[in-house]
Amino acid sequence: MNKTLISIVIFICTALPLSAQEKVTVASEASEGKVTVYYELKADPSKEYKINLLLKRTSQPSFTYIPENLEGDIDEGKFASGRRKITWRLSSREKSMFSGGDDFYFEVTARPVEAGTAWYYYVGAALVAGGAAAAIVTWNSQGGDSGGGQTNQSLPTPPGRP
After folding, report:
1. CB-side exposure of 118: number of CA atoms within 13 Å?
2. Which residue has the higher pLDDT, 110 or 136?
């Protein structure tokens, strides 16, 4: 019974819904020492979004690089109206890393920014607390140790010293 209850609580807490990603179209152009990425977010312009930029490579699907030194329409804000721009100023290290390839592309992700704490966090916390309390009560009622060790007995005397 306890294992089933705990399994249900863990399942509910891990199955909380993830925020949806919005539709983004991306174009880019490179010039000396910088890359300009243009994107258009097709979403509700009244909402705020968290914008992230990733550099990927078609020849290596597992390759992902998070560019540094970005400026423009990135991070959190109302970016869903019109064409937006992100400028990436490449460091000397980044210039040498990406000089030998022409199969790079950018991925812009946009996730809605949630205001406040969602209700399902409160429900999940209540379920975890209730499950823990039920497990403790059930454990103690079945004669389990309450965690205090020998509760009604005195401690044995220590062994003699040589």
Report:
1. 10
2. 110
Burial degree of 88 (CB within 10 A; 0-12, 13-18, 19+): buried
CB within 8 A of 48, min separation 6: which ones?
76, 77, 78, 112, 113
Q: Is the pLDDT of residue 62 over 90?
A: yes
* 139: Cα within 13 Å, side-chain hemisphere: 13
Token couple for 80: 């869903």
The span from the first CA to the last CA of the chain, in angstroms, equals 51
The answer, yes or no, to whether residue 136 has pLDDT greater than 70, is yes
Looking at residue 150, its amino acid is Q
Q: What are phi and psi of 28, to 5 degrees?
A: -145, 160
> Whole-model pTM above 0.85?
no
Copy the structure tokens of residue 75.
């991070």
Q: How far is 102 from 33, CA to CA, in rounded Å?
A: 16
66 pLDDT more than 90: yes
- The set of residues, in sequence order, having a beta carbon less than 8 Å from that of 151 and lying 6+ positions away, is none
* Cβ atoms within 10 Å of 127's Cβ, excluding its own: 16
